[in-house]
Structure formats: structure tokens, C-alpha cells
Amino acid sequence: MIRLGFREFIRNIKRNVLIIIQMVAVYIIAIFTVSAFEEQYRLMDGVSGVFDDTGMIVLKSSISSGDYLNIDEMEKMLVKVDAIEYSINYNLEKNGYSIELVASNPENISYRPELIKGKWCEDVPHEEGVINAVVSTNMPFGQEIGKIVEIDGHTFKITGIVDTKEMVYGTSSRYTYKESSYLEYYQPINDINNIDCLIIASFEDIQKYSPYKTNYSSMWGFIATVDFEDDITDEEIKYNMKQMTERYKYEEGSEMMLTDEMYDYSWRLIMLKIMPMLMLLAVIVIVLVVSLIISGTINVLYERRNYGIYFICGNNWKNTFKFSLVNWFVMSITSIILAIGACVFIYSKKLIKGLILSFTGIHVIAIACITVVMLFVAVFIPYIKLRRIQPVSILKENNK
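Above: the chain sequence. Below: its structure as C-alpha cells.
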């Protein structure tokens, strides 16, 4: 069956070039669409441990009083709190270089930027008195993995290197109230103002070995997230906001904001980012389905004589259906290989700006689903036609 199906693929390849091109186009757009979704969802998912529609965003200090937050006080005075997430974020100096340090709690934040080499700072064994750290590629004090660097009272051990184009959690110093989203938590390293390089430190090590008190928000990033329990009531949320107002002089819409609208807008923003590619994918899929139906029908007509010969030699329509399926399966595999090659070429040559390319399990699932649907469409119509054809009629036609 496999041999006959492969021969049918080779025999009809010229006639099916257009179908292969359309299938390649579907796979290319699907791969880039999933990549775009994954890139955005990776950022969203990275803060999903604390960011949902029942929470509160607070600035690190009061605008009116200048008073800084204290994590111990907040945990005592607020009710129905699941977690209080804050990044440790402050500046260091060495030899005239300005260095920004950032660290986030891995129990709350799962996001990790991709490393050029080395390992993530939390994954390397911890040493007494040493702070595991990932450094940006523009670090002026060496980038050797395992190197010990003394900076402004801190002892760092370099465990990994990250590109300056990568998004990093906890460094952003901006907050847009009206159109705030999950992107408020992130910033590309090369967009951070007035620094020469970045150090991403182990949260555990910084808490232990930093010479500063990290429980005060003077050492935090610009914003912190208070994640409430899912069953918190409106009255309890109002109570928490009142506590923040009385203790820190915070005002809603100024220094604090509920996350419900921000969370909803985040999902709308993700969909807006991938919607153009989804619409393009839908149009091409519709065109491809029509083409597959037409091509499958034409293929049956062209192969009627061969099918009749196979039948005389002891074949049946069930086996004919099987090697027809092999033909279309080989066509799909060929299209997938060509599509992956095209995606790599387009991305490496930067032919289209803004495209993100990755290959993950979600890509495999998406490609598999598309392939199953296309195989079903391509084989279903021919199968119905084959069931209606009488082998005797084929033989009579051949004799004529």
C-alpha cells in the first residue's frame, strides 16, 4: 500500500504542485501565527501566578507622601491575599558603569528570557555568600560562565548570558492607567534608560546576601501586584483599598488600580496582535479546502484506469482508499518540510519585520490538526466516488 501510494504521489506531482504550494502557505502562516501567540502568551503566562481579574496593582510609593511600601505591613493589614508580588530592582555602580539589578520570585513569576548560553540563575546550585546571576551581553566585566564578579558590595557568580533584545520582567518604570496590560510588567533590556548593562539575580540569593533591606519598596520595581483570593468579595476589596489609603495615602486611579479591566484588556490585546494572521490563515484554508475537493475528484478520474487494473489483480476499494491516503499523506509531509524550510529562511533573512519564529509542542499539535483536517477533506470526496464506481464499468470504458 505504501509503495503504491508513493508511486501515485510521484505520478501526479506535476498536477498537484498548486495544491502543495497552498498547503505550504497554510503551514507557514500557521507556524508564524502560533509563534506570535506563544510569544505573547509566554509573557502573559509568565505572570499568571499573580495576575488575574481579582487583584490590585500598586505603585512602589505614594505620590503625595513619598512613603514606601513595606511587605510585612501589607501582609498583616490586607485580607484575602493570595500573594504580593514585587520585583527587587535597584542600581549598582562599578568603575563608572551604571548597572541595573533585577530579581523576581520564581514562586510567582514563571517567565524566563531565553539565554544565549549558560543556565538560569535559579537552576544552578547556590553557594554561601554568592549571588547567582544572568548578565546581559553588554556586561563590561567579562561574560565567562562561572566567573565571580564583585560589584558594589555584591558577590555575583555568572551562570548565564542574555541578549539585550530580550524582554525582562520587573524593570519597567512606566504605567499607563487607561490602556494598561500584561506588557506593563516587561521591558526590553536595550530600552532601559541610563544603564550600561543588566544583571538578573537569583531572588533567593538577593534576599540572603544583598546589603540592602529588600522588604521595603525603595528596593522594588516601579509596580507591585497584590493577588487576592478568587472568592474575595467586593466589600473585602474595598476594605483593602481603604487600608492602603489610610496607611500609605494611596488613591485609586493614582497609586493603585484593580486588575479586572487590565486583565480583560490583556486578552483583547493578545487577540488583536494575532488576529490579522488568523484571518489570513482562515481565508487560505477555505481556498485550500475547495482546491483539495476539486483535486481529489480530478485525481479519481485520472486514476480510474489504474484503480480498475488494481481491482483485477485482487485489490478492493478499501485498499485503494488506503494507498490514496498514503499519497495525500506524503504530499502533506512534503508540504510541512518545505514550509519549515521557508519559515526558517523568512525569519533568518528578516524578510518580514516583526515576525517571531519558534518550534514547540503547540506547533506540533497545530500542524497535526491541520494535516488531519486536510487529509480528511482530500480523501473523503474520492472515497465516496470510489464507493459508487463499479469495477465492471471501468473495465468497459478501458475496452472502448
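DSSP finds nine helices and twelve strands in the chain.
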